[in-house]
Amino acid sequence: MRKQRAALVTGSTSGIGLAIASELASAGMNIMLNGFGDAAAIEDLRAGLANTHGVEVLYDGADMGRQDAIEAMLARAAQQWGGIDVLVNNAGIQHVAPVDEFPVDKWNAILAINLTAAFHTTRLALPHMKFNRWGRIINIASAHALVASPFKSAYVAAKHGIAGFTKTVALEVAEQGITANAVCPGYVLTPLVEKQIPDTAKARGITEEQVKRDVLLAAQPTKRFVTTDEVAQLVAFLCGDAAASITGTVMPIDGGWTAH
Ligand code: NAD
Questions:
Q1: Which of 53, 79, 59 is nearest to 9 (CA)?
Q2: Residue 2's pLDDT band (cuts 50, 70, 90)
Q3: Cα of 1 to ligand 1 centre, how many Å?
Q4: Protein residue closest via CA to atom 6 of ligand 1
Q5: N or C: which terminus of the chain has fewer CB atoms within 10 Å of its end residue's CB?
Q6: Whose CA is nearest to atom 23 of ligand 1?
Q7: Which of 186, 211, 193, 202 is nearest to 92 (CA)?
Q8: Which residue's CA is minimally distant from atom 31 of ligand 1?
Q9: Can you name the residues that pair with 9 across neighbouring β-strands?
Q10: Which pLDDT tens digit goes with each residue over 65-117?
Q11: Which residues are catalytic?
Q12: Confidence band (pLDDT; 50, 70, 90) for 196?
């Protein structure tokens, strides 16, 4: 029987990351959860996933903006499971403001969490994947890895950056049984999106309802939000053997947004 695989899903206490962690646990993988939130709620989540799916689930609260915390989390995974077989770089934050008013600390945090963290996790996870000649790296990018929107300079820069990083890693490890792909969701109604609605309304001088209808869903030909479950199932597919030839892609799951 194949050894049970271990997956690290960064930013998995909420939204898309939580759906991915649940999906991979249901596929029989051991899971390292990561992200912020109420300690008791996270423990409920951790124990619930472990009990429901009969897998090991650890939680590490590493701040993905900090290199030392990332290194400690990967060392913990290596001690527990020998290393990470499936790496999902998902943790992300957003800030909406005109570029000439963009707070410098927000720029630095977005670049650190949405881009540089994936460099650290990837460099630390790869030696184990190379040794096993098997691995999956899935970066949750965004439609904003392919197109821009005003007032999201740091986010768009970080997401375009992760697209390039993904392609580079894919080329470097292509002959070693390891794939690297970027998944690019359109708008998914998670706390990350809900939180930016008031700021977008302010930046554009419109109501919050208008932001949902005329800014967010206006971009999406399907006129509905992508669901966390749809993204999670795509990630699970990319983890399977049927996806062994899919690598170096920057793959939209955006209701047709980037077809415009
Ligand atoms: P979310 O706010 O619901 O979840 C973000 C997760 O990241 C949470 O678990 C949070 O605790 C964690 N996190 C935030 N800062 C962190 C840090 N410094 N260290 C560790 N964990 C941290 O957001 P979401 O919508 O589920 O977003 C997940 C990913 O999907 C992000 O990379 C985001 O850019 C991307 N994405 C989201 C959408 C969308 O419409 N929601 C669209 C495209 C891409």
A1: 59
A2: low
A3: 35
A4: 11
A5: N
A6: 192
A7: 193
A8: 92
A9: 33, 88
A10: 999 999 999 999 999 999 999 999 999 999 999 999 999 999 999 999 999 99
A11: 155
A12: confident
